[in-house]
Amino acid sequence: MALDKLEYNDGESITQYLRRVEEYKASLANTDNRYDKLVEFTNKWLKLKDKNKMTSLIEFRWISEETLLEDEENNAELLHDYHDLFVNDFNLKINEKNKKNEYIIDIFKRAINSLSYSLRHTKKGQITYYTVKSQK
């Protein structure tokens, strides 16, 4: 629900209006929670600690595909550990039989798309780099 849709409609009771406002606030809280969990997932994926941790998805810039896929065991563990988050909070369908290491990039891309972000890639020579951009 967009902010402009929070205008009071003639003919609606104040109770109906306040209910719509509360629904909007709840949707914002849910988005914030999902966003924070995805930033946490990203930090674990990239093994960022302490002062190197990302605090925002748009800090995900020019990260090579090699870096994203270098630790296949960590990637598999993360997909397992965050399975419920992706299925329940992001409403993603996860193919648990897909054991390809590149699958983590696809899951991440679909999750950030649901938050109005996109994962863009650029190829420089033989290396593919990924960057998160806001669609807002």
Question: Short description, anyone?
Answer:
The chain is of the alpha+beta class. It has helices spanning 14-45, 65-69, 72-81, 83-89, 103-113; strands at residues 63-64, 117-124, 127-134.
SS-derived structural category: alpha+beta
Ends distance: 14 Å
Work out the helicity level.
40-55%
Number of helices: 5
- The overall number of domains is 1
What can you tell me about this protein's structure?
The protein is an alpha+beta fold. The chain has one domain (31-134). Helix content is 48%, strand content 13%. The chain has helices spanning 14-45, 65-69, 72-81, 83-89, 103-113, and strands at 63-64, 117-124, 127-134. A three-stranded antiparallel sheet has the order 1-3-2. It is elongated, with a radius of gyration of 18 Å. The two termini are 14 Å apart.
Features:
136 residues; alpha+beta; 5 helices; elongated
Question: Topology of this protein?
Answer:
Layout: H1 14-45, E1 63-64, H2 65-69, H3 72-81, H4 83-89, H5 103-113, E2 117-124, E3 127-134
Antiparallel strand pairs: 1-3, 2-3
